[in-house]
Request: fold
Amino acid sequence: MCGLFGFLNYSNDKTMNLSVLTNSLAEQSAIRGTDATGIAFTSSSGINTVKDSKSAYRMDFKHPDNTIALIGHTRHSTQGSEKKNYNNHPFSGKCQNTKFALAHNGVLCNDKELRKSLRLPKTKIETDSYIAVQLIESKKHLDFDSIKYMAEKTEGSFSYSIIDDKNNIYLVKGDSPLSILHFPNYKIYVFASTDEILYKSVIDTKLLSELKSGAFEEIEINEGNILKICSDGKLEKRDFNYRYYYGRNWWDFGIVPYSSSISNKDDYIEDLKSLACFQGYSPETVDELIGSGFSPEEIEEHLYCGYEF
Reply:
């Protein structure tokens, strides 16, 4: 349960304080993870990555107001200690003359198998998510084909955000939630893991007036979609063969968290109970749903998508 967020600003307008937007997105996304927080953004020097094993509430991100593209991540650790900063998102990658950064929300269950079967380089990075970077790098190019290859090779729960040094953002939608808004008057796209996080983030910025006047549009992205938000604001979309994996809980994958003194399952359920309270449900409701046959993943999806039980 991690959070993705970011924006693509194609306006060349320096009057909007984009650092305010970034910090608002990060803080609202902290509900999905407080073990680490990071961003990657483009500048004249390429891609800059800032991350630390702190919650978003303790971070203060700063970047130029003419930043074009940015992705961010709030982490709930599952595999790889957040105390080792190289385990935290976003991760850096390179394909020939293109540098990129990638963030992942979800849990992958075949990273070790892929690294062995495809003879990918060994790495000190322990996080399952890093296999996505290595798969793209193995294809030598960052494009729809290499991203499709990566998305179809990785198994488990995922959505990905990818930023390149050409000021483009790719969003890859698996089963993990992802929401996108476009504000044409300000020429900016903003995204986050859920509608609630996204709308609450925008309320704290100049984009609030656009919300009030209805001067925005929701951008559709479905499971099996790869959406490219180009540096000029144009959208391109491709599909990949998405396969739904049942029973994809962290404890089913044999993943042991480094920062928990209790079992994964109990820790995850406690997180769900906290989220349920935030959404107006009691902790007892979560217990009742599990007793009725709902999996914790199904409960999480209902809570984040705003469905009623």
